[in-house]
Amino acid sequence: MRSSFAKSIYVGAAVLGLAGLSAVTTTTASAKSYATAGAYTALADKSQNVTVTGTNAIYSKPGTVKGVKVVASKATVKKLAASKKSSDTFYAYGTKTTNRGSVYYKIVTMDKKYRGYVYAGKTAGTFTAGIKAAETTTEAAVPSQTTVYFANPGTANVTWTAPKYTDIHAKKSVMNTTPFAGDKLTITDAATKTKEGSLYYYVKDATHPSVSGWIYSGAVTSDAKVAFNQATDVKVNFTNDGKTVASGVLQNLLADSTKKAATAVGTAVGTDATAKAKATVPGATSDWVDTQLQGTGYTYDKTSNANAAALLAAKTGDTITLSVNKGNTVTSTIVAYSQYQDNTKSNPTLTYTKLSSLDGHTTTAYTEALAAKKPDYSKVNYATYGSKVVFPSLATGFSGTQGASFTSADLTTFANNNKLGTLYTPTFYVDKSGSTANAGKTSVKAYIKYTLTSANKGTYGDKAQLFYTAETVYGSDSPVKVTANTGNAIFG
User: If we measure between CA atoms, which residue out of 487, 417, 403, 488 comes closest to residue 455?
Assistant: First the structure.
């Protein structure tokens, strides 16, 4: 999968296996005078992966000899140079030098669509134009969970001797993984395709060693419960208005006829499929169907005759569809917390203080204390107002389908888009030193600025939690005016 050019790169024979590479439609190139090309020389190194630079076209022969045809125009080559597909990586396997000293390399794309000669400079054994050496993969970290299974056995995403289109000699280790569904695979290596960035794993199959090879990371799963064996299982798609909202696999089903484990594709297993779909999942308090839908915001339609019929008619290897109902739209209450860690302690831990909004009572007391002829600063102190913030008025709440999951990023985005990224207390008063210990005795202004640092993931309908760090600002008024958030139920 990697390329390296040696100083001496020639042998006097053609590279095996490349004679049958398919050609593409060509067009005749014109020239007023012609060069002559020397003998073809095959490259010694079989791993010469290269990419085109986009500066030179690809020809059927060295570009200045008589009868040459254009295989890929300069415009096409520019597109290939910018391509993010590994199939557009080239393999250099031969060379010719003209009597004018121009060196041309014979190259072919990994998908064998384009094959021909490209100008590479005036010095044999080096690339100074037209092409450059390429690494088709980069090393990646092996995941901590190395035991995986084929996620969806079949003819797609099988194992290869090298990640597809990263090596001209790569071939499939196996044409169909269906017979090996349920095999325990062990990840021993990982690599990322340079062009696409897609991750591949090398997996070893101890049960069937010939299956071992490179496979796209998305084609395997560490969860044995979702691995699909066509001889023993039934795949289930849960849909609403034609949209699939979740999928699951009913595994290790019993044949209707024998009440023994099914062993072949097409075995009727409806009775056991119905029983397992409605059975309580071990370690859970809900049925299998309900467990599959957790966090989606949908519920299984247990009254549907069509669902019952689909389960009863199930055969191993089938993919059946069960209808589900969408939950109501609900608004989650947002709860804000200030977090603080005292690093002076030997074992510092985070402490949390809930930030509350100003209500009508505290707002009235605040304004009355400051409106007096002689303001009573002792009543406008840190203890009373240090954790009371002025929440913004929102046009809409943090809403979603009841029971559906939201991520930390979802909540953070909502908060930042709705002026919840920074919150402020009203102005309060402290002593001259800036300490809050004797708050209210003198008239030094202060306020606290709370900056959003994190948000918890959760479920719509439950509380949505935001976390802030505090910074006390002395000597100036708070940026916010004192208003009561009464009636704004979105804030808890």
Answer: 417
Identity at 28, one-letter amino acid code: T
CATH of domain 138-221: 2.30.30.170
Residue closest to 389 by CA, chosen among 491, 319, 300: 491
**CA proximity to 183, closest of 156, 219, 147, 213:** 147
Q: How far apart are CA 464 and CA 458, in angstroms?
A: 7
DSSP E strands in 120-193: the ranges are 131-133, 137-139, 147-150, 185-193
Distances (CA, A) of 213 to 152, 177, 179, 190, 201: 16, 12, 16, 11, 8
> Helices 270-278 and 305-312: crossing angle, nearest 10°?
130
The amino acid at 420: L
Q: What is the pLDDT of residue 1?
A: 53
Which tokens hold the place of 165? 């289109």
pLDDT of residue 10: 40
Q: Where are the domains of the chain?
A: 10-133, 138-221, 234-326, 332-474
The segments of the chain whose pLDDT lies below 50 read 2-27, 29-31, 437, 439-440, 486-487, 489
Supply the pLDDT for residue 21: 42
- Per the structure block, which two tokens stand in for 76? 């096409």
* DSSP annotation of 141: P
- By residue count, the chain amounts to 492
Q: How many CA within 13 A on the CB side of residue 90?
A: 27
Please state, as a whole number, how many other Cβ atoms lie within 10 Å of the Cβ of residue 259: 9
Q: For 264-282, how does the pLDDT look when each residue is reduced to its tens digit (9 = 90+)?
A: 889 999 999 999 998 766 6
